[in-house]
Each structure stands twice: as C-alpha cells, then as structure tokens.
Amino acid sequence: MDQEQAIRWLSEGRFGRFRDAAGGDHTRAVALYNWHLELSTELFSLIHWSELLLRNAIDACLGAGQPQAPLAATWVLDFEVLRPWAVRQVVGAVERLPSEQEITRDRVVAGLSFGFWVALLGRRYDELWRDRLHAAFPHERPSREAVATVLRRLQRLRNRIAHHDCLLDVDAGSAVAEIFALARWIDQDADEWLRTVAPVERLVARRP
After folding, report:
1. pTM (2 d.p.)
2. Which is nearest to 46 in space by CA: 185, 177, 142, 160?
3. What is the mean pLDDT of residues 180-197?
4. Per-residue pLDDT for 201 more than 90?
C-alpha cells in the first residue's frame, strides 16, 4: 500500500493519525495500522467473551427455576423486574427472531444488546441488585457501581471498535485488566482461562 493508496482507501483524516504517530514515516505508519487492526480484533474478541459471560450469568441468576417458554412466565417479561425501556428492548428482540423459530428465553437473551445489560446494572436497578442481581457476581463481592463502571467503559470501547475508531489513545492494558476483573467476579475459572488465550498484553508490547 503506497502513500496514494493509503489516502484513497483509508482517507487522509484516518491514515494521517497513524502517519503522525509514526513520525511521518509511511512504512512505519502502515505497520502501525496493521498492528492496530490486530489490537482491535483481539480486544473485540475479549469483549465478546465478556458479553457472553455477563448475559448468561444474569439470566441464570434472574431466571433460576423459570421455563424457556412462555416468556410471560420468565423474568424477561416481568414488569416487576424490568423497567419499561428494558421491556421494549425485549419486545424488539422478539420481533427480530425468525418467524419459524420458537420464542424462548434463551433466544431472546441472545438477541438483547450490550446496552441492555449495561442498563440493568444502572442506578435504577439498585433494589434488584440488592435483592437478587448481586448473586450473578459471586466472587470478591463487587459493588453494583463497580460492575456498572466497568461495563460502561467496555461498552464505549466496544462501540469504538465496531465503528473502526482509532484506538491509539486507548490504554489497552487497563481495558484488558477490567475485562479480566469482570470475568473473575462472575467465574474465577473464566478469568484464568481468558488469561491463557488472550494475547493482548503481548500484542501491546509489540506496538511498532
């Protein structure tokens, strides 16, 4: 990729940030861009694991003893558990399901956005946290505020990666530490396993 191609394919505004970080050297800027792509991919994979751990832990906690169907018999359509905005998110997830699929709790949970889970740890659900939701994070007994803070940061990072934003100003090491903390609060074995499969820390050390 020569300089003209870099500008045409990536835009001056985008590639220029990498060129500036590389001291104006085009070859180093391309190497930095490719490294940045690897970093984005690895961080997104860790966030992927975090979201799965989170939603399944919450569903196991709030849905203990509940059936897969009908939804009205589960927490996802319980107006004493969820606020109206959250119920609308559930309805939206149901509407997005293929018509030939049975509507089950599992399928609806899988269709809810990361923002849904972040909101569920918000201040408005403080009573739910005290009564039941804290049990989804049985290790080290984190506060609701601590969990919510980590989730909000991961949501912002997830959105930046999804929109191909530049992450050169992101402290990837701190982000990974928070992902490990979230996993540890949910399941200590998950934390240990993620540490063995996540090369992010080694990748950060290899930044051109």
Report:
1. 0.91
2. 177
3. 93
4. no
